[in-house]
């Protein structure tokens, strides 16, 4: 009788483990594997203020300006032999200033194009990379900024060595914000003068925990733990190690953290946590009524003025 009970228990445990592995691989395919956008990463009913007429016009002009550009196409090779793609707009002023605009999850460099005119008017060359696993860049997984931080170090070196950049600003949205903040904890060249991070998360684990509860109403344990192990096997990193908070603690550069007050995708509390943890000179701007990465859309003029003030101060 006892033998039958143990066999039954073993069978149940085996079925549960198989189910967890299947579920872990499913969530890896949905959230980490290269692919199209899915529900877990969509905005959860964020409340965005309606921009006034001036801001609507400025936003439309910014998008139209970018659409009219004919950028150069650049490519570099990552440390793990991936071909990485970017668009590059050379400024006619040739002032030796450059900005790297880092896009969000399952977007491309073009999604940061609305910010390009602002920087161009300030005399910057514009680099808009497609992150690994996105757009025209190679890669079959998404690193949520953890592996991408090394790719952006390579782009920085490219700008210095091939384009003569003497003053470089990093500006990222969402996953791109996490990427540039993760890069802040590395040994950055002296040419990097400041970092702007809009709507970044505190860690990959914390963000995915939030999404599992917010979208699926599921607890993170044990599903997220299993998916993290699968991610280690298939992509070479765990959710636990991909911590933005730990990286910004090593930051020494001027830092501007921007976060929407009504961000449901990346909770506003994460922006405050990053600000509290960050080393170096820092500033936090919580934008009233703005959802995820919607500050520029909602209050375009104020956003531009704050970026210009940051640039004037640091350069």
Low-pLDDT stretches are 43-48
Residue-averaged pLDDT:
90
Percent strand equals 15-25%
Order of helices and strands: HHEEEHEHEHEHHHEHEHH
Largest sheet, described in full?
8 strands, mixed
How many individual β-strands?
Answer: 8
Q: Work out the helix count.
A: 11
- The number of domains is 2
* Radius of gyration from the alpha-carbon trace, in angstroms: 21 Å
Can you give a write-up of this model?
The structure is a single chain. The protein is an alpha/beta fold. It folds into two domains: 1-31 and 208-240, no CATH class; 51-203 and 242-314, Rossmann fold, CATH 3.40.50.1820. Helices cover 43% and strands 16% of the residues. The chain has eleven helices and eight strands. The protein has helices at 2-31, 53-68, 116-121, 148-163, 175-183, 204-216, 223-235, 244-248, 268-277, 295-298, 300-314; strands at residues 72-77, 83-89, 97-102, 124-129, 167-173, 192-198, 255-260, 282-287. Helix 1 (2-31) crosses helix 7 (223-235) and helix 4 crosses helix 5 (175-183). The longest helix is centred in the first third of the chain and has 30 residues, at 2-31. The chain starts with a helix and ends with a helix.
């Amino acid at each position: 009788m006892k033998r039958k009970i143990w066999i039954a228990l073993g069978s149940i445990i085996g079925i549960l483990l198989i189910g967890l592995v299947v579920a872990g691989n499913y969530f890896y395919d949905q959230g980490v594997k290269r692919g199209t956008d899915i529900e877990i990463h969509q905005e959860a009913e964020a409340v965005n203020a309606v921009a006034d007429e001036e801001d609507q016009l400025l936003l439309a002009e910014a998008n139209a300006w970018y659409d009219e550009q004919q950028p150069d196409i650049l490519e570099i090779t990552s440390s793990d032999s991936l071909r990485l793609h970017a668009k590059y707009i050379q400024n006619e002023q040739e002032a030796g200033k450059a900005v790297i605009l880092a896009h969000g999850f399952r977007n491309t460099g073009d999604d940061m194009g609305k910010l390009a005119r602002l920087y161009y008017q300030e005399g910057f060359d514009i680099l808009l990379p497609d992150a690994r696993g996105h757009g025209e860049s190679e890669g079959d997984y998404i690193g949520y900024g953890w592996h991408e931080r090394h790719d952006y170090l390579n782009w920085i070196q490219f700008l210095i060595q091939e384009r003569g950049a003497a003053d470089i600003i990093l500006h990222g949205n969402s996953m791109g914000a996490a990427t540039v903040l993760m890069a802040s904890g590395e040994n950055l060249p002296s040419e990097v003068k400041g970092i702007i991070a809009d709507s970044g998360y505190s860690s990959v684990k914390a963000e995915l925990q939030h999404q599992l509860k917010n979208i699926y109403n599921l607890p993170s344990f044990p599903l997220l733990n299993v998916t993290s192990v699968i991610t280690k096997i298939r992509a070479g990193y765990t959710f636990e190690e991909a911590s933005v908070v730990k990286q910004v603690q090593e930051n020494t550069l001027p830092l501007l953290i921007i976060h929407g007050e009504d961000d449901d995708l990346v909770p506003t509390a994460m922006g405050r946590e990053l600000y509290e943890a960050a080393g170096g000179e820092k500033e936090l701007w919580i934008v009233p009524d703005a959802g995820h990465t919607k500050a520029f859309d909602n209050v375009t003029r104020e956003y531009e003025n704050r970026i210009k003030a940051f640039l004037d101060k640091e350069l």
